[in-house]
Every structure is written in structure tokens, then in C-alpha cells.
Design brief:
The complex is a heterodimer.
Chain A lengths: L18 E5 L2 E6 L3 H8 L8 E2 L2 E2 L2 H14 L3 E5 L5 H13 L3 E4 L6 H8 L8 H7 L2 E5 L3 H4 L3 H6 L11 H4 L1 E6 L4 H5 L5 E3 L5 H12 L12 H13 L3 E5 L1 H4 L6 H13 L2 E5 L6 H12 L5 E4 L2 E4 L5 H6 L5 E5 L3 H4 L2 H4 L7 E5 L11 E4 L9 E4 L5 E4 L10 H11 L1
Parallel strand pairs in A: 5-6, 5-14, 7-8, 7-10, 8-9, 10-11, 14-15, 15-16
Antiparallel strand pairs in A: 1-2, 3-4, 3-16, 6-12, 12-13, 17-18
Helix pairs in contact in A: 2-18, 3-14, 3-18, 10-11, 10-13
Chain B lengths: L10 E9 L2 H9 L4 H7 L1 E4 L1 H6 L7 E6 L2 E9 L9 E5 L2 H6 L15 E7 L8 H4 L1
Classes of the chains: A alpha/beta, B alpha/beta.
Organism (chain A): Methanolobus halotolerans
GO biological process, one term (chain A): respiratory electron transport chain
GO molecular function, one term (chain A): NADH dehydrogenase activity
Chain lengths: ~425, ~130
């Protein structure tokens, strides 16, 4: 076995304890990673070819064609980035600026508002290492790490012993799930660990908990058991280091973040609570931080000369729905898989470029496809974990394919 | 063609909630175009009462439709302890995304995890394939 440890880029946990076995330059075994991680590191069965209009070609020609599409477009969209290295993301921002384009990533319809609130210090947060060493009360709210981040509970949040949590999970940690169904994570949280609420019932539950923390009788229109709500408020008050792992179940249910801010403020007036967004893709947070440094916004940007425009109208969803872009470059994402079919159908009407290690639904409709190395396996770089910690990535095996950063660099040079 | 082809199928309105599944995610990474990914994605988890209302048996296929589109998926009983008639669960996938409404109220965030469909017996139609979706 290779004596080095590597980072898994299968999700935003970026587990850095991965062992691999390599024979004849090929990866044969992966140790320590979860089911998803092993599948990701071993790679897909359908690698992407370099093509222009469906015909195989060399990468140089595909890069030239991609640059030509972007040059000829008035309003190109540069979208994806959540599965891209930070280096590729920074060049993508440069390409969007150079072409007066729209730039957006998957956080636009995912954890964008949560990351934005954290970057702007509106929500108190902590690192996953803090969680491992200190956290005693864990709330999985609308999140199901047993499926979305399979090593979350074993490596960071529930099961490990940490510096201040030496007695093990049975005595040292309390795990709670607030969800609309009994998820696999709720099963792990035990008999009384699930607080099952109706769909879209999150805001009311949050407000009822805020009332309970203030010593008032908690009420919900769906008559949630007041005794259980008061018991939960009691657990939260006694927490020495509490963490809420916010999932999309919670985020999508909130009309706005005011109830969450009120709840966190109240929690932090009686105990100490932090929030970590359960970002899915390995470097979504990296894109948010990189774009924020460049523009002051985390996503949904349109460059217009020196001006930077921002708002929901510049989101990938609204830009495609209103047919306001006239070409698209997709890297590190598969919008034909992840967005409503009725919205992404428009991508088939405009010149489309896909850069990815694997064939995707989007690549099947692309005019230009450019393969790149699988970041963290075939190429290195850097990424930012779901908790904001930067992690260095190094390649496990060699490849002839260009890194995603190099592909973007080549396109930028052609521009 | 059996006599059942001429009988109208009961239609049931369902609220769909989507979720994540580690095994389906792994199957996607291995092969987006593979049978395993289709098997784990094109499935709907139903309450036992809704299975009865729809006059189907477990593992029969259902047509799900709304203004956004229509797909055929396999029906499975959820097995959740808490009854959930009228609410069904689907793993997030290109199949569920066929049914997610386009209108996002100007927010840029479609209702991925909460939308309505009308379900009916597909009378033996095959599950929608990934290539039929695109």
C-alpha cells in the first residue's frame, strides 16, 4: 500500500485519511473511504472524450472551439464549479469577467444563503475539528449525513472521541434529528432522537423552540407535543458546545432566514451553538469564498464591463428560464441531472461546452466536450471543506488528461 | 391486451418530498447511464393506504404527471412507522427533476423537495429510462 494519505473529493467532508493501492500506475484498491468515496475515487465507467459537434477531436481544437463560442456570445453563462478545484474556479471567474458573462454555481439553488450568512458573520459557525473535539449536542436539521456524507458521524460529529469528549458517544454526545421523515440518520439518533415535523413545518418549529427557550409555552399550528418541545429546549440550554447541521430540508422550508437568526440569537443567549451547512459537492464552499473575494458576492453574478451585477435574476435558474444567456460553459456540474428538466431544456438551444472527467447528461447535449483529470485522484489543487477549512489535494495516479485548471487556463489563453 | 386496459385507473394526488440516498449516489458516480442508477432512482415510496387507493401492488409501475412532465416509476411501500397518506418520497434524481416545477417565484430556487403530482397505474408500462428523459 502507498504510505501516503490522500483526500477524497467525493463530498464536502474532504476526508484526508484515504489509503490507496496502486499497481502499474493504476489504482487497484481504496481504503477508509465510504461507499460514495470509493466509487468516486475509482472513477466512472464512461470517461468523457474530446469532441466538437459530436466528432472526436484533439483537445487543442476543442479548446479553440470553446473559446470561439465564448467570444461570439453576448451573454455567456459560466456555470458549475462545485466539483472544480479552486484554481479552476478562479480562472472561471476571470473568463466570466473577460466575456461579460453570467457566473453561478450549484449553491445558487442549494446552500448559498447559508454560506453567505456565515461569510457575512450573521451565523456563528465552527470547524468539523471543533465538532470532533468539543461538541456535546448535535442537531441534524433537515439533513441526513448517513446518506449525504456517510463518514460525517463516524469521523467528526457523533462517534469519535475528541479532546473534550473522551467518554464516547453514549455518554458524551446527544444527537437529535429534526426532519419530515425517519431518515437513516434519525435511526442512529435513537428512540427519542427524532422530532418529526410536517413538510414546511420548520419555521413554526423554530419559532416554537425560540419561545420555549424564552420560558414561554411553545405552540405550533400542527400541535407538536409541547412537553417534547420543552424537553428539547432543556437539552439545548444545557449544551456546552452545540452544533446545528443545516440540510436542504431546513433551508428550502424557510421563506427567509429571520426565524433562523432569531433562533440562533436566542440559543446563543442561553448556551453556545454553531451552524455548519451540509454542503454536498466537494468545493461548492470554495467557489463561494473565491467569488466573494473577487466581487463581494458568493454567487449569481453578471459582469458588465467594470460593473458587477448581482441578484436572483442572474441566477442560473432565472437566466435559463428567461432565456437570457446565449451560450454556456459547464464545468464541475451536470445541470441536466440536477435542475428541473423544463428549465435546462434551453441549454439544448444554445452553444454548450462541457468540461468534466466523465460523460454526463449535459455532455450528451454539448457542442464541445473537453475531458479533464479527476481532481484529487488524477490532479492536485486546493478545495474548501463544508466548514470553511482549506484542504490541499494531491494526485493519487498520473494521467495524460489536463487538469481542470489547465483546461480553463488554455481557454483563457485562447480568449 | 387484457380487459383491464379499458378500465380507467384511479388517480391520486400526491405531495412529493425528495431525499438523498448514498447507494444511489454511488451508482450515479459509477455509471449515470447504468441499470443500477435507474433502479435506485426511478422509484417512489408510498404509504400503504395510497397503494390501496391506486389499486396497485408493490413493485407495479405508476405514471406520475404534472404540468412539468410525466414519468413512469416503480411503486414501493415506504415502511415508515408514521403513516404518511398523500405524501410520497422520491430520491433526488433526473427522474424527480422532470416533475419539479419551472416556476421559482423569481427566487432562483425551484421547489426540489416539495411538489405535487397526480399518480395513476401505468398498466404495466416500463420505467422511464435515463435516455428518455434527455
Amino acid at each position: 500500500m502507498d504510505n501516503d494519505y490522500y483526500v477524497c473529493t467525493g463530498c464536502a467532508l474532504l476526508c484526508d485519511d484515504i489509503g490507496v493501492e496502486i499497481e502499474g500506475g493504476k489504482l487497484t484498491k481504496v481504503h477508509t473511504a465510504c461507499r460514495k468515496g470509493v466509487a468516486f475515487i475509482k472513477g466512472c465507467r464512461h470517461p468523457l472524450d474530446s469532441t466538437v459537434k459530436g466528432e472526436r477531436t484533439d483537445v487543442d481544437l476543442a479548446v479553440k472551439e470553446a473559446a470561439s463560442i465564448l467570444k461570439n456570445a453576448e451573454n455567456p453563462l459560466i456555470f458549475g464549479h462545485a466539483n472544480s478545484s479552486s484554481g479552476a474556479q478562479k480562472i472561471a471567474i476571470g473568463i466570466a469577467r473577460r466575456t461579460n458573462g453570467y457566473i453561478d454555481d450549484t449553491s445558487s439553488f442549494c446552500h448559498g444563503p447559508t454560506v453567505e450568512a456565515i461569510i457575512e458573520s450573521k451565523l456563528k459557525t465552527c470547524t468539523l475539528d471543533d465538532v470532533r473535539h468539543k461538541a456535546d449536542v448535535l442537531i441534524f436539521w433537515g439533513s441526513d449525513p448517513a446518506n449525504s456524507h456517510p463518514r460525517h458521524m463516524s469521523r467528526y460529529s457523533y462517534f469519535p472521541r475528541g479532546k473534550e469528549r473522551q467518554r464516547g458517544w453514549e455518554e458524551d454526545r446527544t444527537a437529535i434529528t429534526i426532519d419530515v421523515r425517519k431518515s437513516d440518520t434519525a435511526e442512529i439518533c435513537g428512540k427519542n432522537g427524532l422530532y418529526q415535523i410536517p413538510v414546511k413545518g420548520d419555521t413554526e418549529f423554530m419559532e416554537a423552540l425560540t419561545s420555549a427557550l424564552s420560558g414561554k409555552v411553545p405552540k405550533t399550528s400542527y400541535d407538536f407535543d409541547k412537553k417534547r418541545l420543552l424537553e428539547l429546549a432543556g437539552i439545548l440550554k444545557k449544551a456546552k458546545f452545540g452544533v446545528i447541521f443545516a440540510g436542504l430540508g431546513m433551508i428550502y422550508s424557510l421563506e427567509d432566514f429571520e426565524p433562523l437568526y432569531r433562533f440562533m440569537d436566542k440559543l446563543n443567549s442561553v448556551s453556545s451553538f454553531h451552524l455548519i451547512p451540509m454542503a454536498g459537492h466537494y468545493n461548492m464552499r470554495g467557489f463561494n469564498e473565491n467569488l466573494f473575494k473577487e466581487t463581494g458576492y458568493i454567487n449569481r453574478v453578471k459582469f458588465n464591463g467594470a460593473e458587477v451585477l448581482h441578484g436572483p435574476e442572474y441566477s442560473v435558474v432565472e437566466a435559463l428560464r428567461k432565456k437570457e444567456v446565449d451560450a454556456a460553459l459547464v464545468i464541475g456540474a451536470d445541470p441536466l441531472s440536477s435542475l428541473p428538466r423544463s428549465i435546462v431544456r434551453y441549454l439544448e438551444e444554445i452553444p454548450l461546452i462541457t468540461i468534466d472527467p466523465c460523460q454526463t447528461l449535459t455532455s450528451t447535449k454539448a457542442d464541445v466536450t473537453i475531458p479533464c483529470a479527476l481532481v484529487g485522484v488524477e490532479s492536485g489543487g486546493a478545495a474548501i471543506r463544508m466548514d470553511g477549512v482549506e484542504v490541499e489535494l494531491k494526485p493519487m495516479v498520473e494521467t495524460d488528461r489536463l487538469s481542470d485548471e489547465d483546461v480553463m487556463k488554455r481557454i483563457m489563453e485562447e480568449l | 391486451m387484457g380487459f383491464g386496459q379499458f378500465l380507467s385507473s384511479p388517480e391520486v394526488k400526491l405531495r412529493i418530498v425528495t431525499y438523498r440516498d448514498a447507494f444511489q449516489d454511488a451508482a450515479k458516480v459509477e455509471s449515470l447511464f447504468g441499470e443500477e442508477y435507474e433502479r435506485l432512482s426511478a422509484t417512489i415510496l408510498l404509504d400503504a393506504k395510497d397503494i390501496t387507493k391506486l389499486s396497485i401492488k408493490e413493485n407495479d409501475t405508476l405514471i406520475l404527471k404534472n404540468k412539468s412532465g410525466s414519468i413512469v416509476v416503480k411503486a414501493v411501500e415506504s415502511g415508515y412507522e408514521q403513516p404518511h397518506p398523500g405524501t410520497a418520497y422520491m430520491v433526488n434524481s433526473p427522474w424527480s427533476n422532470v416533475l419539479v416545477p419551472e416556476e421559482a417565484g423569481g427566487t432562483g430556487v425551484p421547489a426540489f423537495k416539495d411538489f405535487e403530482v397526480v399518480a395513476s397505474n401505468s398498466k404495466g408500462a416500463k420505467v422511464t429510462g435515463i435516455k428518455d428523459i434527455v
